[in-house]
Fold:
Amino acid sequence: MTLEFRHHPAVTLAEVAEAAGVGESTVSRVLRDHGSFSKKTRDRVMEAVERLGYVPNRIAGTLASAGSRLVAFVIPSLSNIVFPDVLRGASTVLEENQHQAVFSVTDYDPEREEALVAAMLAWRPTAVMLAGFEHSERTLKMLRASGCRVVELLDLDGTALDLAVGYSNRAAGRTSAEFLLKRGYRRIGYVGHDLDRDTRAGKRFAGFSEALGAAGAPLADREIHAGGSSVESGRLGLERLLARRRDLDAVYFSNDDMALGGYFHCLAHGIAVPSQLAIFGYNGLDIGRVTPQPLSTIRTPRVATGRIAAELVVTNAPPQVVDLGFELVEGATT
Amino acid sequence: MTLEFRHHPAVTLAEVAEAAGVGESTVSRVLRDHGSFSKKTRDRVMEAVERLGYVPNRIAGTLASAGSRLVAFVIPSLSNIVFPDVLRGASTVLEENQHQAVFSVTDYDPEREEALVAAMLAWRPTAVMLAGFEHSERTLKMLRASGCRVVELLDLDGTALDLAVGYSNRAAGRTSAEFLLKRGYRRIGYVGHDLDRDTRAGKRFAGFSEALGAAGAPLADREIHAGGSSVESGRLGLERLLARRRDLDAVYFSNDDMALGGYFHCLAHGIAVPSQLAIFGYNGLDIGRVTPQPLSTIRTPRVATGRIAAELVVTNAPPQVVDLGFELVEGATT
DNA sequence: GCACTGATTGGCAGCGCTGCCATTCTCCTC
DNA sequence: GAGGAGAATGGCAGCGCTGCCAATCAGTGC
Structure:
């Protein structure tokens, strides 16, 4: 129905100028509140804008001037709550500063990442935000050549291209291990998801087992789920792990989703937590604070990561690495 | 460090043409694989593209031709898993069809929505995707005048502007009530979050209490949390509700997050579910299937909503309303 | 060898806006 | 009233690409 009305081409700045009886540059100046013009002119222009329903064309504006004020996010997943949280932190800052967020999802695939980065760069964004430091050679080359800011998020164990905001996953894994050891657990298992693709989970695991090894209590066993992480696969993973190793006294999960699955498995099968089995997660999801026993975990600054990253970009900060740290949350499952 | 290298302006199509010894239009044709050119020319162009690291400028391309292939999402929230799920469903389809997703978050505020829609329209997107049918007069006017496709998501109770994809929230509420009634529950309470802002939750609640009323078992009591929904507020809400009404035999929650909070409260306080109190949610989150007792809920096609919406847009389908329905999941909490 | 058809190719005018520069107005100052 | 400093304004050349059209080239039939 509205289709008939659709194709009258959109109002242009020139038409507004005509309608207001002023020059194009005057309209442009008024709309951007930049340069000088009289109050009377301003009113006349705004009246015409209002009357014609003019919406500036930023495609044209960007081409003519410089910055697109577009910030591109190339993220691995939207199922993993981490990334919506980062986007959430960033979007507030970006909106306040008249920037726009564009995103695409790589599904943890470096080749897709490469293709998507290329597609994003075609929009000449102000900045590109990526997860972590592991990128293909070509991706890195494109980013370097692009001239736009690059922010690598949620990791610190690697070399930054330009800006980096996050925390050390390796240290998070180590801290988790040290905590469990200090609590006296010795027969510790691990339940995780695909570590090759999710390199940050891989780094946590490396830090974790490294610390266990250093303390003379190496990882007893582990169960890796081939796909992504989920509550369901956490439950299943723990079930399988326990079927092999009944003597475990603690299990470290690759994140809270998995850990909650494990916790529910214990609840459902009468496994006393933590006396029979301790459970430790990662992320510090809200839900983990409300379970009958609050989940022991590492709380990560996901929203802040997005916020800070966006702030660095809109203020055009010099290249730097920002360590936001993490916080160990001592729940009741350890 | 790379900052020094940054400001050599990006390679342009003209430079590629020069380097390959062909005309600009030939390069353009080769890159878009559109029109005809010889194999030899193609190779020569691609070689130059490769060598110079050329990345097409879609800002310029869009200005010169037509479609931006940008799809704008103006969503209420990223904390509510519903919206990441919708984005997830859409992003796959969009990426496969060389479209890009831009988004911004209104925080359930119609005025912010208005401002953000205006900002989005400045990019001349192919389509704008919004949540629900409730928009300000000015928002509607801008959208109608914009000439771009409009998709209203996740609701069916209202009048569509152009395309709509979702399901009836009112019917979901009604179905939930009828299910509880059929199970014999009569003293039913409600725990929810801010219904004025989240109009879809409001419609579910309306459908729910309407059905209860029609069956002669009107809602016994309700507890509304002023802010957004969360597991924590669900727990707290149930606690408060039960403090007032010890005699309830079932509680309907505005969504699964809230319901899980309520369920955890029961687990922690020895309230037998469902014999003492039945719990019913909404959304059908994965986690609800793995709790010791699977949660009774309504499963909504969130990812499919995003996917279908994107498909309609990329295929430029005629205006229509797509009802994706929902599914009642009979868990063990009722 | 010549006309004819269709495949290839290059030239160039915009797309709608911004930035620069020149011009015109205002308002003071002396 | 002349001279001068700004303020206010308009004109117009691009930004980098695509779409259109004209020009050129290659292959075919006779």
Remarks:
- Chain A is about 45% helix and 15% strand.
- The longest strand of chain A covers residues 70-75.
- The first helix of chain A runs from residue 3 to 6.
- The radius of gyration of chain A is 26 Å.
